[in-house]
Amino acid sequence: MTLSAKILELIPFACCHLNEKGIVDYVNAQAELFLAKKRTELMGFNFWEAFPKWKSTACFTVVESALSEHRTLTHDFISEVTLGWARLTVVPESKGVILTFQPISGLNEANDPDWNTNAQTDQFSGEMPSEYEARYR
Fold this sequence. Notes:
Elements: H1 3-10, E1 14-19, E2 24-27, H2 29-35, H3 39-42, H4 47-50, H5 58-69, E3 73-78, E4 85-93, E5 96-103, H6 117-123, H7 130-136
Antiparallel strand pairs: 1-2, 1-5, 3-4, 4-5
């Protein structure tokens, strides 16, 4: 196991890599738990065939958009496995795309139906807008 693979095994959130054809070629231990599938069920298989329901969700759209726009995107959603909010981060790279899934806990932007993660991130100035500050204090 390479040093990079060892490090990815230790990070406290789910991480996987899909090649340019959507085939899973890396899954860390946390991804097995978060996705409720063993590596052997994912490695070498098309991610969207392993999770066919996801193809009709915003998660699929975000992955496709990140790839076509060549930029990192995030999307908050409710996980069917954890039954809680999670944040998908999609990072395109030369040989495919890196997907990370992190649970979201506590009162935060995921609780606000008007929240647009990408727009808010792109426009973040370092200060919380007054309408959010009042809501989250």
